[in-house]
Amino acid sequence: MKAGKLAKNAVPTDRLRDNAVATAKIRDIAVTGAKVKESTLGAVPLAANSTRLEGIDSTGFVARRDPLRALVDGDTGSASIARGSGAQGVSSPNTGRYVVVFDRDISRCGASATLADATATAGAPGEISVDQPTDDSVEVNTYDSAGAATDTFNTDGFYVQVAC
Fold this sequence. Notes:
Elements (H helix, E strand, L loop, with lengths): L51 E2 L2 E2 L1 H5 L4 E6 L6 E6 L1 E8 L2 E6 L7 E6 L11 E4 L6 E7 L13 E7 L1
Antiparallel strand pairs: 1-2, 3-4, 3-10, 5-6, 6-9, 7-10, 8-9
């Protein structure tokens, strides 16, 4: 045996001073999970916030897994929510412009829309665009086939979906 080297198990655990073996003195992959007493481990520094994502508590993940959606009916002569999930209401400040309000902040979400009809199988031809959601609402713009702004009561309505 060389000088300075100890034989395996030469120093029993009860003969080691507390904190005598530091990380730098332990060979890589020498300590495995099976050799660690879990109750002696402290909190992982980044784990303190591990139950939150983008400020949302983990209990909200399940409640928010379904996309928010609204079928806006234009057949009535003014826009209204025919059905959906999380949609609170709709307003039309200008021709062809609709603001659909949802029950939570959607500013970090994405939205899509398509022309639709709440009472028939197919909506009228036309075009639709969606702006980036802000706070709790998304702006939807509808156009006729020539590209001119038009209200949904001329195109039946639209379907908007927000995914977070």
